[in-house]
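Narrative summary of target 7.
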Amino acid sequence: MIIKKSEKDERREKIIDVAFRLFVDKKIESVTMGEIAKEAGIGRATLFRYFPGKLELVIAVNTKEWKEYFDELDQKRPMSSVGDIPAIGRLIFTLDSFIEMYQTHKALLRYNDNFNHYVSHSGRKDLQMDEFNQALFSANTRFHMMYEKAKEDKTFKTDMAEEEFMRVTVHTMMTACAYYAGGFIWGSKENEDYTPELIQLKEMILAYVKA
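Modeled conformation, tokenized:
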């Protein structure tokens, strides 16, 4: 059964899509709520009925974009398949997925990098991150299952804490992809494809975890 979106849901989605485009093009810090309302074809009062502040909208944008990406990834490789392959195979798939993000989802990588900086400097202590954290549940669960699988099949080393392992492997790969997507690499040229360099980084990570 197809559930038709309400007018309210469609308007909220349009606001988020417009905000995402503006945030990527101009950076979060420089975009005003007035600009977003104008681009979305609504009044400022209407915008604030959906999102009481810019920070709430920023979080909603990141939540929606990551959820859509992980839903797409889940269709390619369901969570139920994690145990079907060696842990190293899952890690390779994860690293490759970030390279694919660099190739096909540069906007999300650029936005996420800006998002982390903006949120960490917001000064707000009451961040409503529950929905965002839920959107990342799929990824975090997969990573944990992969690490536990490696303890059994010994296809990559697990002689460090899980959080540390993720930082020096998966998170390092994602950070590099985000920086390449944003052009924040020394000597980089605009519109050049740096996939070969990211593949080299992937191979360095794999050599490290197998050592």
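The mean pLDDT is 88.
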